[in-house]
Predict the 3D structure of the following.
Amino acid sequence: MREILLEIEGGKRMYDIRSGEMSRALGIEEEGSLSRKEADKWNYHLNLLQESGQVEFRKTGGGGWLVERITWFGHDFLDSVRDPEIWDRTKAGAIKASGFTVELLKDLAKGFIRKQIEERTGISL
């Protein structure tokens, strides 16, 4: 989900999540179509981003997802996990904890950011 948010922030505005089956059903060229498994995976993750309130999408016919915007919550999460070092530490912490939510991931990342600020500036937050 982090990677998708980074893509959207970088300017990606459309996801074409069309399986070969859907292309055949629509009577359009199958080139560029995804496998059913890959299309299901993408739809699942885009739905999660929308349901969690991180991104607003508008679905089009034929498997298209148009990006409306990243929400405040999505920007807050992304800003917390943007730095690759912080993200690696956050993932490792979540694995050690044996479970997490998006909110806990964000809080864990913010904790690492606070520690990094303190180490680099001597200022405690």
